[in-house]
Amino acid sequence: QGLNEMIGGGFESGRVYMLLGITGIGKSVSLLNLVYQLKKYNKNYKTKDPTKTPCILMLTMENTVVETITRLFDLSTNGNLGMANYTIDEVLRKLREEGELVLNDDSPIDIVIKYKANKSVDTSYLYTLVDDLEDDGYEVICLVQDHVKRIRSIYNSPDLRIELGDIVNEFKVFAATKDI
After folding, report:
1. For burial by CB atoms within 10 Å, which of 71, 109, 137, 152 has the most?
2. Three-class secondary structure of residue 72 per DSSP
């Protein structure tokens, strides 16, 4: 609620939001928590295309998918034992029941987690990723990328300052073009 107040009521399509902080302060887990909260508190979400399933896409370039899912498990189930202490069936049950991570008419938003290695893709990959998900029946309603210095600009500037500015601008164009 506090974040919604700070940003004037919630996230808007076509906009870019950045969380910045020093190493180890919890940026990635905060972003994952945002993903979880967006799914949990946007019940009965309707897509622009009624034939598509809404999804929040998390592109992680810092943590593996397993690390990300483990964190999501801990966030959504208030777990402090970690997934390793449960069977797969128990993990799935806890995610569905305690974490409310289910897909149904009341809670239609899916969470898709993709991993790419550091500097392995540039921002043009965002279009490919979203287009592929659209082909698979999804409508991406939010994209979260967890480390801006790990994705490359399409312009490949040797100056880090300019590179980061280009990346943010490319994210802005992407968000506006895709209305995400």
Report:
1. 109
2. helix
Do the Cβ atoms of 34 and 73 come closer than 8 Å?
no
pLDDT tens for each residue of 31-90 = 999 999 999 988 888 999 999 999 999 999 999 988 999 899 999 997 667 888 889 899
Contact (Cβ atoms closer than 8 angstroms) between residue 19 and residue 31 = yes
The full DSSP string for 17-56 is ------TTSSHHHHHHHHHHHHHHT-TT---SSTTSEEEE
Asked whether the CA dihedral 146, 29, 31, 69 is positive or negative, the reply is: positive
DSSP H helices in 41-150: 65-77, 88-97, 124-135
d(CA 83, CA 143): 25
Sign of CA dihedral 166, 152, 32, 51: positive
Predicted TM-score (pTM) of this structure: 0.90
- Cα-to-chain-centroid distance, residue 5: 21
DSSP tag of 150: G
Question: Distance between CA atoms of 138 and 140, rounded to whole angstroms?
Answer: 6
Q: Is residue 99's pLDDT more than 90? A: no
Per residue in 142-173, pLDDT tens? 999 999 999 999 998 999 999 999 999 999 99
Q: Which residues contact 171 (CB under 8 A, 6 or more apart)?
A: 16, 123, 126, 145
Q: Which two tokens stand for residue 151?
A: 């994705």
